[in-house]
Amino acid sequence: MSPINWLSLFFTFCLTFLMFNLMNYFSFNLKSYKPLKNNYSNKNKMKFSWKW
C-alpha cells in the first residue's frame, strides 16, 4: 500500500471516530441539561462520554 493511501484511510477513520464521539457528547449534554441544576451541568460540561 502506498503511504498516501494509508494516510487517507487513517484520516477517514479518525474523522468518523471523532464525529461519532462528538455526536454522543452533544446528545449526552442535551439530555442531561437541566436549568435548575446549574452546578451539576457546569461540572459535567467538559466531560466526554465515550459510549460505543
TrEMBL record:
Subcellular location, record wording: Mitochondrion membrane
UniProtKB keywords: CF(0), Hydrogen ion transport, Ion transport, Membrane, Mitochondrion, Transmembrane, Transmembrane helix, Transport
Primary location recorded for the protein, binned into one broad class: mitochondrion
GO molecular function annotations of the record: proton transmembrane transporter activity
GO biological process per UniProt: proton motive force-driven ATP synthesis
Membrane topology: Single-pass membrane protein
Keyword match Membrane: yes
Source taxon at top rank: Eukaryota
A Pfam family assignment: ATP-synt_8
Spans traversing the lipid bilayer: 6-28
GO-annotated cellular components: mitochondrial membrane; proton-transporting ATP synthase complex
InterPro entries: ATP8_metazoa
Quaternary assembly: F-type ATPases have 2 components, CF(1) - the catalytic core - and CF(0) - the membrane proton channel.
Similarity remark: Belongs to the ATPase protein 8 family.
Record's protein name: ATP synthase complex subunit 8
